[in-house]
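Predict the assembly for these two chains.
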Amino acid sequence: MAEVVVYVDHVGGAVRKPTLELLTLARRLGDPVAVALGEGAAETAGVLAEHGAVRVLTAQAPEFADYLVVPKVDALHAACQSLAQPPAAVLVPSSAEGKEIAARLAVRTGSGIITDAIDIEAGDLGPVATQAAFAASYTTKSRITHGIPVITVKANSAPVQPAPAPGTVETLTVTFTPAATGTRIVSRTPRQSTGRPELTEAAIVVSGGRGVNGAENFAVIEALADSLGAAVGASRAAVDAGWYPHTNQVGQTGKSVSPQLYIASGISGAIQHRAGMQTSKTIIAVNKDPEAPIFDLADYGIIGDLHTVLPQLTQEVHTRKN
Amino acid sequence: MSLRIVVCVKFVPDASGDRGFADDLTVDREGVDGLLSELDEYAVEQALQIAGGVEGCEVTVVTVGPGDAKDALRKALSMGADKAVHVEDEALHGSDVMGTSLVLARVVERAGFDLVIAGMASTDGTMGVLPAVLAERLGVPQVTLLSRVKVEGGVVSGRRDGDSASEEVEASLPAVVSVTDQSGEARYPSFKGIMAAKKKPVDSLDLRDLELDAAEVGLAGAWTAVDSAVKRPARTAGTVVKDEGEGGRQLAEYLATQKFI
């Protein structure tokens, strides 16, 4: 059976959920071969094996942490070349860095690239990727017609499924190209953990917009999010106003999310925001303006002031949970 | 010191219009008015700011696209760029990122550059990978997705805000840079700028000028194929109720019936 290369997104050996989702998709195409790089790479093997990795190729080098993107491209390229035959596909999580790694690998291997797939199926002419286009108003199906199919996949595109496999750890030999040390990472400030789920991975997202009316009022959004075990999002208007960090922005120039439940509070629903949340399974809107376009998307909407509706909802969630 | 900056921009269908696909499943560029991709305005802005501090710096804007794409160049020129290059050729219709980047790499090499600046993504394709692809093709460092950028002493540096960390990065010129929408508000063209733009040179090139083979680009030369594009059924609006004091509890009841709590 053909092998499928899966790029592992991990932090110090802790594998992030989108990688496990990739393994579910990879198993539809062939035998998953995971590639884990940098500090903690070998520690990823256990969980990768539980989810279908037949082999886990690992490499350690200071270059992975000290230089931008290219060292990882060199390693992924080496992994592809180490296989007995070209892989049936290379799957990479659709993070900003993941997309850049995938794209450079595609150029190097003379391959086409598809980004931000939301599903992948095996097809007669190779993997068929589903994508959402134009702010999720269209669904497209595409293939790669030249070289190795290199596909990046958005978080929450497939379920995480246990599928025990050997997960044999092998050391990958990487020879860095001269370009590898082109862009130096001078310093790195890790993002402070809020204790809440990762925005793109969360099952529930509670977002606030212009209607929140002030940074301090985001406490109302956070309280509801915490009662539901949800991530916190913000519209561009709220971020531009300086009320919430850009890392939490949902929309075209922020994160694109697809949770089971999305609660939009004080968000009008401009195209730039809809582009980032339109594919959520269930959408709830709370807004004072009955004409807000967000109500056109909402499965359930409350016309009212979020500052009274949300605290009441939070209280009710706590009551019901106890 | 002189500095040659090339800004790559894209002419895209207006996102507020009813965007869709043409019969050949390429982006429909007829049905909706086009404009300079909003995210590319940030690239033009940063180029102009960098150029402002350097004697003898020249900013060239480049686009690959049909005749109307000149509008995007005009906008960038009216913001303050010095000159423009428009690559137009019927054979380019339907190019994917590999085809487009091949053309851009050739233009940039021909023009000569110290710095290439691009936006974080186009607002139509939204891939966000062209700057990385361009860096790979040109064999120069990529310094991408910057929310702050600075050029000093032949080095470009800036802040890259990633998912798990914020990084300070730097590379020697020449390099390819991309900037995010956090890099700073783009200026509006002044009346003077709009008038001046009419006199600025726009160089038109086709594939022959660039010594590129038509088979390497366009729909036929693309390394990806779109098999279908289906309009999603619009989400239908569900129940909307007015808060009469029980809105939060009603919402809780709905979430309970949907098994979220």
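The longest strand of chain B covers residues 142-152. Chain B touches chain A through 83 residues (CB under 8 Å).
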